[in-house]
User: Fold this.
Amino acid sequence: MQEKRHIGLDLGVKSKSKVYIIDQAGEKVRPEFSIWTNPQGLDYMIEQAIKGASNDILLDLTMEPTNVAWFEAAVYLRSKYPQVSIYRVKSEKTQDLRKFYRKHTKTDSLDAKALAKMPIVDSSSLEEVYIRPKNMLALNTRCKQRARLVKEATSKRNSIKRLNRAWFSSSCRLLLL
Assistant:
């Protein structure tokens, strides 16, 4: 059976992110550690995840959609480590699992642990992150901009039509007097 490791990454927006790594049985592989979510930190995280494992190891990474920090990390990891499966999980799911582990505790380390165990505990709820190619992202942005401009232009046109109708009807009333 191919060896598998699960990485839980609790993203910190203004602080270091917590990392928790377990094997397919749910046992901790390394002591938890913190990284900055820059390329060096993400590379270090992957190095720690594969340390001491066979060459054909499967890695998956689970994280919450924290601001846009998840997207930057996912884009980097997808481009440099395409073999890593990346999952986003709803914050509520992590919160529920964290409550199961420790009822009244909220720590980044506990969140990282819950995220790492999510593929074992509730794998059916995980959906792999799909990152569109750059040209698709650019096209999507342009389409959104066009839609916004069309909406604004339509609003302005309708406003002018209303003003024109109001002016025309008041002008007609003056002529009838």
About this structure: The chain has two domains: 4-128, 132-177. Residues 129 and 145 are 24 Å apart (CA to CA). The two ends are 94 Å apart (CA to CA). The first helix runs from residue 39 to 50.
